Amino acid sequence: MPLRLLILAFALGAAWLQSRPVLPDLRWAWLLPPLLLLPGWFPRQGMGRLLRGALLLAAVCAGGFLYAAWRAELRLAEALPAAWEGRDIQLLGRVAGLPESTPRGWRLNLVVEGIETPGATVPGYVQITILRLGAGREAAPRAGDCLTLTARLSRPHGSINPRGFDYEGWLLERGIRAQGYALGVARPANACAAGLARHIDRWRETMRARIGAALPGQPYAGIVTALAVGDQNAIPDAQWTLFRRTGVTHLMSISGMHVTLLAGLVFALVNGGWRRLPRLALRLPARKAATLMGLATTLLYVALAGFGLPALRTLYMVATVAVVLWLDRLTSPSRVLAAALGVVVVGDPWAVLSPGFWLSFGAVAVLLYAGAGRLAPAPLWLAWLRAQWAVTLALYPILWLIFHEISLVSPLANAFAIPLIGLLAVPLTLAAALLPVPALAQAAHAVVALTMSGLDALSALPQPVWHGAAPDLPALLLAALGVAVLLLPRGIPARWLGVALFLPMLFPRLEYPAAGEFGLQVLDVGQGLAVVVRTQNHTLLYDTGPAYASGEEAGTRVVAPYLFAHGIGRLDGLVVSHPDSDHSGGLQALLASHRPRWRLASMPMAGAGRCSAGQNWRWDEVEFRIVHPPARFYSAGLFPENDLSCVLKIVGAHGSALLTGDIERLAELSLLQEPGSDVRADILVVPHHGSGGSSMAPFVAAVRPALAVFSVGHRNRFGHPAPEVLARYRAGGAAIRRTDREGALAIRVGAGGLSIDPAGVAYRRYWQGR
Fold first, then answer.
1. pLDDT-derived band of residue 260, with 50, 70 and 90 as boundaries?
2. DSSP for 431-457, written as a single string
3. Comparison of pLDDT for 655 and 370, the residue scoring more
4. Of 136 and 9, which is predicted with more confidence?
5. Residues with Cβ < 8 Å from 386, sequence gap 6 or more?
6. Residue 42 scores a pLDDT above 90
7. How many CB atoms lie within 10 A of CB 132?
């Protein structure tokens, strides 16, 4: 059995574990040794040989599965005890890595070196937010600082949405087992250990400051800083949008590609120069000297990146290649790739959760496949174009699956951006970080500026990005087969058939409600609201989710990815209930990404009409009615913003729903007393997240919902939903569903009745604490 297949089986076993809703019982591990010995009982010829191979692969796959489960148990055991959630704990710790500036303060990772609160138990690695309390009251934390602070911590928690980003899994991979915020001011201390990690973090802080001082006010200083020390915090959102549209996001920070290119460049230069020095070459062969220097450069660059996981995975890969070259064990590139895969998965079983893992190994594997079968080496320019074509084509299915979009201009963008950034900007940036010569940083900035001008031109082309629904597994496998067919060597007939194999991915079958039916997707956006309403041929968005304290917002992070993943490239309508940031925080992003055909809001909004009772429309035999506020409420000036929320009633052939925004008692009384108002509904998205100032008993009795949906944030500071509100709905016979406990809720109102599909069930993983 080839070792490559065994390593691949081990990696697939580890990957399978990461898709499980619960961890297996490790007591089953005693079956692994007998399973590994079982293939030896079968003959080596005929069917026996096939059975031996299949059993061996199954045993190794099971070994990868159980190894990843063991590592997962160890990491989960580091969690913050439930008894200490939300309690004040005095901590002493070291700032690990570069602190990130946010609109409200700083977010940093803290290595806990002391717990001064008696009896408290805290994981060794936590994420802390320090709020700005006022000018001059605290200094910005710096990498390597030793701090004492009072923290209020909770267990990691992330939203769960169909095909959405798994923030909780991201934290698990990085070993962050508690999150929280500091109370008051974090004060400097002198009791932390002075280890190597602290010196590296201090060094990175110095490098970042050096780059910033050399490029004051320059538009691309954030990119140069990211290339130098891996800090992406200073790159504006507009530049990230440009990178996504042109498919070069992977180039604008320390990535596996940069580390590999830099190591290869150093290897080539040292190898060529060493050969010209006979005395040195006689003492140490040029290839071994080049290998050492390439590995040392890789280690230096990965240290500059703070030993971040993407760069660390590349270090494992480069180290594997260096060992092979040092030992003069000339072997096939595919064996080296397989060995690197094994090293990465053993070191980090959660690597398979990262898109970068699949993109890096997929790109190298495709280059090896595309280069096989060539009878003669091609000119350098032609080989480069072939490599770009092969990698772009092969990574399209993976990018489509993960990001639900592909850049149609990415082959052109990468063709000039990779050499400019990887071979010019990165070496200049590294030199600028290490040497106090401002001209080096300015030269790196000039190269980045040249690259950005080309990207701007490509982004301005019509339709540079194509969005599409996320493919299912059969369509993805057919597209992968299509890649293999299209990349066959010239001369093999019917390679064009590979294009046909892409069609199921490009044009997937999507499920829509029938005429008269409708669906609601109450997204898990934390403490806020975003509801996608779908009929047979139309899509409406009610509210856009919150803006987060980190500076991100739900429009980009949750809502737009959900819409794209389900084949919704444009909204037919948008209703923003009221201006509170937890309902309108994602508005600007969604106006840009999904260009609603019309808009309604209770506040002034460019291109939008004011919602008022009596407005109605009909889509696909489903009626939509605005039932609040009456138009006269706007001129009265007596009502707070919450009570002016647009209230939307949806009536289909098989049921109804009421979406209420943040209305409180005043609006509820108005709805009950307004002539002709009908608030009876089967589904109620509960007013104001279930606050104590809403959902009065008469209102609950008038609506009489069969299903009451609470869109609330986990452990939110308002205490929503209020216990008395929950009691009212339960007493009225309503079923209670909550996004903080079940994730996004897919509700369908059809001929078969009312159905509910919580994302927390379909997308549950073992690390989620719900």
1. confident
2. HHHHS--HHHHHHHHHHHHHHHHHHHH
3. 655
4. 9
5. 370, 378
6. no
7. 14
Q: Is residue 558 within 8 Å of residue 164, measured between CB atoms?
A: yes
Q: What CA–CA distances, in Å, run from 637 to 73, 202, 601, 644, 672?
A: 58, 56, 16, 10, 20
Radius of gyration of the chain (CA): 29
The residues, ordered by sequence, that sit 6+ positions from 438 with a Cβ below 8 Å of its Cβ are 213, 214, 432
Spatial CA neighbour of 257 closest among 211, 305, 198: 305
User: Higher-confidence residue: 29 or 461?
Assistant: 461
Confidence of residue 515 (pLDDT cuts 50, 70, 90): very high
What are the φ and ψ backbone dihedral angles of 232, each rounded to 5 degrees?
-95, 5
CA distances from 189 to 126, 145, 169, 422 (A): 18, 8, 32, 40
Please provide residue 660's backbone torsions phi and psi, each rounded to the nearest 5 degrees: -115, 0
754 membership: H or E segment, kind and range: strand 753-758
| Strands, E assignment, 440-579 | 465-467, 518-522, 531-534, 539-542, 573-576
Q: Residue 113's closest CA among 92, 134, 127?
A: 92
Distance of CA 81 to the CA centre of its chain: 27
By the 10 Å C-beta count (0-12 exposed, 13-18 middle, 19+ buried), 381 is classed as: exposed
Tally of CA atoms within 13 A in the half-sphere of 117 that contains its CB = 15
The whole-number pLDDT of residue 279 equals: 86
In this structure, are residues 714 and 157 in contact, taking their beta carbons and an 8 Å threshold? Answer: yes
Amino acid, res. 569: G
- In sequence order, the 6+-apart residues with CB closer than 8 A to the CB of 749 are 517, 518, 519, 520, 652, 654, 655, 656, 657, 682, 683
* Alpha-carbon torsion (394, 399, 402, 406), positive or negative: negative
CA distances from 190 to 94, 110, 111, 117, 194 (A): 10, 15, 14, 18, 10
Q: What is the pTM of this model?
A: 0.89
Residue 88, number of CB atoms within 10 A of its CB: 12
Tokens representing residue 766 in the block: 């073992």
- pLDDT one-digit tens code per residue, 696-726: 999 999 999 999 999 999 999 899 999 999 9
Which own/partner pairs from 539-542 qualify as long-range (CB within 8 Å, at least 24 positions apart)? 539/563, 539/568, 539/571, 539/572, 539/573, 540/571, 540/572, 540/573, 540/574, 540/575, 540/619, 540/624, 541/571, 541/573, 541/574, 541/575, 541/590, 541/594, 541/596, 542/575, 542/577, 542/648, 542/659
- Tens digits of residue pLDDT in 399-451: 888 888 888 898 899 889 988 998 899 999 989 988 889 999 999 999 999 99
Number of residues in the chain: 770
Residue in this structure with the two tokens 């200490």, named with its chain if needed: 84
Tokens 């010019």, residue? 424
Nearest CA among 595, 350, 397 for reference residue 501: 397
Tell me the sheet residues that pair with 466. Answer: 406
Lowest mean pLDDT among 154-158, 252-256, 365-369, 744-748: 252-256
Binned at pLDDT 50, 70 and 90, residue 373 comes out as low
Q: CB count, 10 Å around CB of 210?
A: 22
The per-residue pLDDT for range 727-760, each reduced to its tens digit, is 999 999 999 999 999 999 999 999 989 999 999 9
pLDDT band at 27 (very low <50, low <70, confident <90, very high): confident
Q: Which two tokens stand for residue 346?
A: 């053993």
